[in-house]
Amino acid sequence: METDQLIRTLTADNAHRARPVGFVLALALLSAAPVSMTMFFAGLGVRPDVMTAMHNPFFDLKFAVTLALAISAIAVGLHMSRPEASLRGWAWLLLIPAGLLAVGIGGEMMMPQRLPMMTRLVGSNSKVCMTAIPLMSLPLLAAALIGLRHGAPTRPAIAGAIAGLLSAGLAATLYASHCTDDSPLFVATWYTIATALVTAVGALAGSRVLRF
pLDDT at residue 10 above 50? Predict the structure, then answer.
């Protein structure tokens, strides 16, 4: 190879910069979102009394919790996509949704209730919750793994688990608009179990997909 051609090749390589992980992750999630939304509207749909439910602070709390989970997981996931990154100094972000739930449960406990605590905890949609959130999470999880793979995570299982939290948070936000169980006790129980399932799948998939 001639010297001039070698210089041109090296210059072209240096001029080409990989797209930021955040950009790829956002693009992947935006591409997967219509799939999850189609699954939602085809199988569930928004609850009929949503306009009335919006006046219930516990209905609104569900979205605060699920969005806090998704946003926190995005921040932690982007951090974990860097080489040699660890959860130290970042894991506390994942406690924000748990803190919101704890405040909601405390507030509900101080209010007079027509239904017993166990009735509110079990609710009437636990089976749907346990099925819908994981299923709607799958396209988003695949997208999150694609986005994080664009980085260089050195802890693939942990990064995959964060991708699971991210996708479950977004899917749960969709599901919350359908769910008629607004008690923070229900959310803390069944949303958490569904999220844990997706997180486990994410950790397993991440340990393989994100390994370099």
Answer: no
3-state secondary structure the chain: CCHHHHHHHHHHHHHCCCCCHHHHHHHHHHHHHHHHHHHHHHHCCCCCCHHHHCCCHHHHHHHHHHHHHHHHHHHHHHHHCCCCCCCCCCHHHHHHHHHHHHHHHHHHHCCCCCCCHHHHHHCCCHHHHHHHHHHHHHHHHHHHHHHHHCCCCCCHHHHHHHHHHHHHHHHHHHHHCCCCCCCHHHHHHHHHHHHHHHHHHHHHHHHHHCCC
71: Cβ–Cβ under 8 A, 6 or more apart, which residues?
169
In tens, the pLDDT along 81-115 reads 888 878 888 889 999 999 999 999 999 888 887 88
- Predicted structure pTM score: 0.87
* pLDDT tens track for 32-64: 999 999 999 999 999 999 999 999 999 999 999
Q: In the numeric block, which tokens belong to residue 17? A: 């910069």
